[in-house]
Amino acid sequence: MQRFKGVLQLKHSLQSPAFLSRYRTFLAQPNYLPQDDTAQTQVLVEGRANSRAAILNRQSSLNAINTSMGNGRAFCSGADVVSLYQLINDGKVDECKNFLDTLYRFVYLLGTYAKPHVAILDGITMGAGGGISLPGMFKLVTDKTVFSHPETQLGFHPDAGASYYLSRLPGEYLALTGDKLNGVDMIGTGLATHYCLSARLPLVEERLGKLITDLPSVIESSLAQYGDIVYPENTSVIYKIQTIDKCFSHDTVEEIFDALEKEAADTSSEWCISTLKKLKEASPLSLKITLRSIRDGRFQPLDKCLAREYRISSNCISQRVSNDFCEGVRARLVDKDFAPKWDPPTLEDVSKEMVDTIFSPLGEFESELELPTTLREPDL
After folding, report:
1. Are the C-beta atoms of residues 226 and 194 closer than 8 Å to each other?
2. At CB < 8 A and 24+ separation, what contacts does 191-194 make?
3. pLDDT for 150-184, tens place per residue?
């Protein structure tokens, strides 16, 4: 029987007393020593002969991803966009592209990883945090999980594989608005495979650590053993699917706005009003880029989605059309005035040519994302 060496557990060890309680890390006692963000401690690898656990450990940055890698009240809050912002302002765009290349390659390797692996999303899971977990085989969420893709609020687009997994559900809504889902919502939308209370995670980890087989059916039953039967709250997005389909199935962002405004006028729906508010706060250019990317992803495999996302991201950080990414990060995460000056400022000012430029091939001396598809997926 094959030894169980492939459980790669991406999670955190819940050491923020203001938000979550401390618990045992996978196959190890908790680390009570002070944490820092040095490269040696940004990813903790723990385990025994039968399994391994990779623990994100950049608590001070909510486990934002950098190339050195986080641990704390977040599973992963996405890429370290503030560092990318600083690199762009310092003229180091190539370093940003190297980071994106590394991140997207990792997402692809995870999505095509042959051995079973479990991602435990126990806390804030935003942006690229989804990319490093959702393409995997087993996705365990808890009562502490908070998931979202807020990139349009930052003048960017959902990347790191988001156009692949969001496009296979009501993804336009989640991608455009950045609305938050809890663990129950993620089960309901199919983004997660298993749910259990955060307090039971030590039992789950202990059970996984004792397995001596990598059969998916055995891992499945082990996770189900500590699972909980849950039902969406009355305010859950699950109960808005009909309205979402009605409003977000239109061809253009402008038509989506019009549909929401009509629905709000006809029903006085607080949800429609709130959704419109979120959309109006986002970058107009990002909204149009995101809608097209999600729609393209519906018909593409993971590698093609990542290649397209890399092209979009590279053109965005190179500021071929707009400086919206830096402006969004400045407004929300640096100066925190929450008053971005988007360019173009309105949907009407965003031309088809602008969007086409963002999706266009990179320059003659720039490399596209090249993934090892022949090695990883020889049957394609």
Report:
1. no
2. 191/130, 191/134, 191/139, 191/147, 191/165, 192/121, 192/139, 192/140, 192/141, 192/145, 193/137, 193/138, 193/139, 193/140, 193/223, 194/138, 194/139, 194/140, 194/141, 194/223, 194/224, 194/227
3. 999 999 999 999 999 999 777 799 999 999 999 99
Report the distance separating Cα 231 and Cα 238, nearest Å. Answer: 10
Q: Report the alpha-carbon distance of residue 87 to residue 94 in Å, rounded.
A: 9
Long-range contacts of 365-370 (CB under 8 A, 24+ apart): 366/97, 366/314, 368/307, 368/310, 368/311, 369/101, 369/104, 369/105, 369/306, 369/307, 369/310, 369/311
Residue bearing tokens 């100066």? 335
pLDDT at 30: 30
Helix ranges restricted to H, 226-333: 241-248, 253-267, 270-281, 284-297, 302-317, 324-329
